[in-house]
Amino acid sequence: MILAELEHAEARKLIGRGVEPREAARRAQHLQVLPPCQFAANTVAVNRTRALAAVAVIAGRRPDGNAAEVLHRLGARYRMERVVDLLRPFVGSG
Hints:
With 94 residues, the chain is mostly helical. The protein has two domains: 1-33; 36-90, no CATH class. The protein is 68% helix and 0% strand. It has six helices and no strands. The protein has helices spanning 2-16, 21-28, 36-46, 48-60, 67-76, 81-87. The longest helix is centred in the N-terminal third of the chain and has 15 residues, at 2-16. 15% of the residues are buried. The model has no long low-confidence stretch (mean pLDDT 91).
């Protein structure tokens, strides 16, 4: 039900941008609902540089934080093991 509503809203948005209704409906059917860990992994896979910058910002917010600790937390607390696997080679051990 929620996915159908999202598809409808996406199709309306595309039509508002000038896409033909049939084409808008076809495009809107490609929406995916993903768990946060999969969405994050997909996002990291697309742009590791930006993901590493985000990890650095998060680490900088904590007096005792470093990028390795942020990755550990992402894996242990948020079950984002794939994100950790993608970023670990680019982050020092702490």
